[in-house]
Amino acid sequence: MIIDKLENWNYYHFGPAWKQIFEFLDTLTPQSPEGKYTILADDIFAIVMSYETRAPEISIFESHQKYVDIQTVLIGSEGFECSFKDDLLIDVPYDASNDIQLYQRIVPGQTRVDVYPGTFIMLYPHDAHMAALMIDKKSTYIKKVVVKIKTELLLHSFFTDNTALMDFNR
What we know:
Mean pLDDT: 90
Radius of gyration: 16 Å
Shape: globular
Structural class: alpha+beta
Strand content: 35-45%
Largest sheet: 6 strands, antiparallel
CATH superfamily: YhcH/YjgK/YiaL
Low-confidence stretches: 158-170
Number of helices: 3
Number of strands: 12
Order of helices and strands: EHEEEEEEEEEEEHH
Helix content: 10-25%
CATH class: Mainly Beta
């Protein structure tokens, strides 16, 4: 999991796909229409959506295998609970057609993060996450974007970029 400001995206050396994602995110505004945006065929796409935040007791943990999530908020703010998926009990087995596995929430996640406009959270396949959570126990309207990037695009870019390897080994 990575949590940071959008302006700091270039501190991470994940290659050309990473840059393409943040160039796309820079084009979005609170007025951007909801829906799916194709960035690189099925390898990288984004979904802009809106909803009311809710209590964690009625939410569920999820994880993905094919895609890494990069999520940011355009309007409002939302909380995330995050946990290692191996620490949770599976509620619904992995569905490859929707790239999702669901987990029971027995106790709060190991990490709680609040995401505001100008910040992002990146969630790897081992990061179970529960989004759409209320902040300060108040439900609020949010508009957000979830970018889905095929896992191997980031891993391949990171480990084949010599600059990234040098920075990683420091």
